[in-house]
Design goal:
CATH class of chain B: Alpha Beta
Radius of gyration of chain B: 18 Å
CATH topology of chain B: Rossmann fold
Largest sheet of chain A: 2 strands, antiparallel
Strand content of chain B: 25-35%
Strand content of chain A: under 5%
Low-confidence stretches of chain B: 211-222
Strand order of the largest sheet of chain A: 1-2
Oligomer: heterodimer
Structural class of chain A: mainly alpha
Number of strands of chain B: 10
Distance between the termini of chain A: 30 Å
Order of helices and strands of chain A: HHHHHHHHHHHHHEEHHHHHHHHHHHH
Number of helices of chain B: 5
Chain lengths: ~550, ~220
């Protein structure tokens, strides 16, 4: 019975993946003429926005990913093991928990011509009494989008790498390498990075897929003409005449991401061959004081920009009068919080989706892991990664088509199910490490005391795993709160969550109102993580006590 | 002369407790000084300080000289101290030959290859140059690890319980190999096991070191 329950969970998870791909593939190939008439590919290729949008996406997605990787490696090589490293690690969880859209809005408030950075320098250093007209945010080249992606994704890769470093015995390798006469940077490049990279490759692929297909951040930080490819496809999907083209584009994006993975693997092989050859040269290398300083500066700048972006949101949400070039508001108010028409409704809607997602994803993960442990079901960790590696748009256009076809679009349950598919991989992967590592002797000890299966589960296993469970729940909540595209496409406009309100209000509504939405969207996951952290610190069990250990576990799972 | 000298070493833990106080010793080339003591007596910390890899939270005072050159403020990679640990730390992404090549300094590709092959032959490991370290036995791994250290031409050798993970038969074999290979270097051996200490070695028992004592132990060549 239990075994079949495990397979049911796998089926529930796999079904939308298959349906999503089929629902995108069929309209793209002309298989659903009543929903998506016409030859999608030819409509797409003939659209004058196609090529510029594609080129822009390649630029923003690839440059952002390369910068994320380089910055992560530079920070690791230069900062690991120093006091700054502990500070960096401490800064990562809050930045990771905040949704992309909120960071993007904060970044606009920071780097726009009327943003805080210009205000800080004006008029004393610039002479500007009005916001300059020399640049606009979002910029046409997509650089502000690249910056936003780098600020949000570098902490993700850094955390994944830091968790893996714990398993690599870095200190011993550095010690041996240095006593053999190699400079620290050379020890990293020859001894540690060749072992570390394969372990963070999957996380890098998740980041690459995300950067090439992101929608909400691209709407906020990306240029409008041409837009990024995903945003361009979003403009097609709701037009019945262009639906087939949107599906063809989504399919093309999925294939493109696949090609990008292959490209990365080919580059990896090339670099590995060159590195392997150079490794035998015996060159010990020199000090890298300048580069180290530069990397330390980059780490502080990157994390600083993320945090100051969040600070901007908080300031704008309570600002009444904040004229340029004042560095701080001259008058403060709570009015935007109290009189915000849609805040209450959007928060409630967001919370209802989030709580349902947390409950269902934790339940599914616990059931699956128990089935795996008890009935020896095969380890299918690779399957949980699938929705994270396929561009959201490629799956969601298909889900939307399927939902429209079977008339279950717009329902609360449909949206919850979509959130669940994106939350459950994180929850399973976080819990899996702790679940599999929990010493079976605890279970045996309870069994010989006469405890049956359910008593052992409720009174021994679950309480002992409460810390990872609370962390997984916080992550599930953060994932759900950040979901823009699934809510938009499957909710059929009937569910106004904070993510939807924030993105749709941006540009057309007062900054203060947008800031309130962004702060609220950030506050929910931050609160969840704080509660999980509080719980972790109070937990009397020794199983993975610190939150950092936990987040490391989560990243190890990834 | 490659004389290894430590003067007035004091190590203080973050909680303020002293790990060792005013410790001084000299080890002459070809001689072995055995540092013995129970767990937590600071043996490995002393070694870490000597190699320049001490945990920065431990406060250290004292001086270290090798061949008359002051090493105290030099980074680990410039101290020319060969280090062997309890674990062999053969890099898993390199073959046996590549591990040895990593230790070698300078030379053309051909020279390096010849050097590696001859040292493997000398150690009874001929033909293993392309082997994955994971396929070697414990004794073979220990020998490769020592060879790698020696190929980096250190001016002194520090051994941190390098034999403790080997079984009894292998131990004697590797001990002999080590003492033979390091015959001209000043060698500091950290160990729990009296059997690891060669008969000619001087021994320093850390448990017997009282704070504020000044001990000078000189390992003399045979």
């Amino acid at each position: 019975m239990g075994r079949y329950f495990g397979y049911l969970i796998l089926g529930l998870f796999s079904l939308p993946l298959v349906a999503g791909l089929a629902g995108t593939l069929l309209p793209a190939l002309g298989g659903m003429p009543e929903l998506a008439p016409g030859n999608g590919l030819s409509i797409l290729l003939l659209d004058p926005r196609f090529l510029p949008a594609l080129m822009l996406t390649l630029k923003t997605g690839l440059v952002a990913t390369i910068l994320v990787l380089l910055l992560t490696l530079a920070i690791l090589v230069s900062v690991h093991g120093t006091r700054l490293w502990r500070w960096v690690l401490g800064m990562l969880p809050p930045l990771l928990s905040v949704p992309h859209a909120a960071i993007a809005v904060g970044l606009v408030f920071l780097i726009a011509p009327s943003g805080w950075l210009v205000r800080l320098l004006s008029p004393a250093f610039t002479g500007w009494q009005r916001p300059p007209l020399d640049w606009v945010i979002p910029d046409a080249g997509g650089w502000s989008l690249i910056l936003g992606l780098v600020i949000k994704e570098t902490p993700f890769l850094l955390l994944a790498a830091s968790a893996q470093l714990a398993t690599l015995n870095v200190d011993a390798a550095l010690r041996i390498g240095r006593t053999l006469g190699y400079a620290p940077a050379r020890c990293w490049s020859r001894l540690i990075l060749p072992l570390l990279y394969p372990r963070i490759r999957l996380t890098l692929f998740i980041i690459l897929a995300f950067n090439l297909s992101v929608v909400d951040m691209a709407l906020l930080l990306g240029p409008g003409n041409p837009p990024t490819f995903s945003v361009f496809l979003m403009s097609l999907v709701n037009d019945p005449g262009s639906r087939a083209a949107a599906s063809a584009g989504a399919l093309l994006l999925g294939i493109g991401v696949g090609f990008a993975f292959v490209l990365v693997i080919v580059l990896e092989k090339l670099i590995s061959a060159v590195a392997g050859y150079r490794r035998q040269s015996g060159h010990r290398g020199r000090g890298f004081g300048f580069w180290r300083t530069l990397a330390c500066f980059s780490a502080v700048l990157l994390l600083g920009l993320g945090f100051v972006s969040l600070l901007m949101l908080a300031l704008w949400s309570v600002a009444r009068r904040w004229r340029f070039p004042n560095a701080l508001p001259t008058e403060w108010t709570q009015r935007h919080w109290l009189n915000h028409a849609s805040l209450y409704e959007a928060s409630l809607s967001t919370l209802s989706f989030a709580l349902a997602t947390v409950l269902l994803s934790v339940l599914a993960a616990v059931c699956w892991l128990e089935c795996e442990r008890k009935h020896g079901l095969p380890n299918v960790d690779w399957l949980w990664y699938v929705p994270l590696l396929i561009p959201q748009i490629t799956l969601l256009f298909g889900w939307q088509a399927a939902a429209l076809y079977f008339s279950f679009d717009g329902s609360w349950l449909t949206v919850v199910f979509a959130h669940w598919v994106y939350a459950v991989p994180y929850v399973v992967l976080i819990l899996a490490v702790a679940w599999r590592e929990l010493d079976p002797a605890w279970n045996h000890a309870a069994a010989v005391l006469g405890a049956g299966y359910w008593r052992r589960l409720w009174q021994v296993r679950l309480p002992m795993l409460m810390v990872p469970l609370s962390q997984a729940a916080a992550v599930a909540l953060a994932v759900s709160v950040a979901q823009y595209l699934p809510t938009l496409l499957l909710g059929a406009g009937r569910h106004q969550t904070l993510a939807i309100e924030l993105v749709t209000s941006f540009g057309g509504v007062d900054r203060r109102v947008i800031a309130v939405l962004a702060v609220m969207q950030s506050a929910l996951p931050l609160l969840a993580f704080s509660l999980a952290l509080f719980f972790s610190n109070r937990s009397s069990f020794g199983v993975m006590k610190s939150s950092r250990q936990h987040l490391a576990t989560r990243e190890r799972a990834l | 002369m490659n004389e290894l000298r430590v003067e007035a070493l004091r190590l203080r833990l973050p909680d303020g407790n002293l790990l060792c106080d005013n410790l001084s010793f000299t080890v002459l080339p070809g001689s072995v000084l055995a540092l013995m003591g129970p767990s937590g007596s600071g043996k490995s910390s002393i070694l870490n300080w000597m190699t320049g890899t001490l945990d920065p939270r431990i406060k250290a005072e004292g001086e270290i000289y090798l061949s008359g050159t002051r090493l105290t403020d030099l980074p680990a990679e410039r101290r020319q101290m060969g280090l062997m640990l309890q674990q062999d730390y053969l890099f898993p992404h390199m073959t046996v030959g590549q591990n040895l090549s990593f230790g070698l300094k300078g030379g053309s590709r051909q020279q390096r290859k010849t050097r590696i092959e001859s040292s493997l032959d000398h150690a009874g490991l001929g033909g293993m140059v392309d082997r994955d370290p994971a396929t070697l036995s414990g004794g073979q791994r220990a020998r490769v690890s020592l060879l790698r250290t020696l190929l980096s031409t250190p001016s002194a050798l520090l051994l941190d319980e390098p034999f403790s993970r080997l079984d009894a038969d292998l131990r004697q074999q590797i001990r002999d190999f080590t003492w033979q290979a390091s015959a001209e270097l000043p060698t500091l051996l950290v160990t729990h096991d009296v059997a690891d200490v060669p008969a000619s070695a001087a021994t320093l028992h850390l448990a017997a070191v009282e704070p504020a004592d000044t001990l000078t132990v000189t390992g003399l060549p045979e």
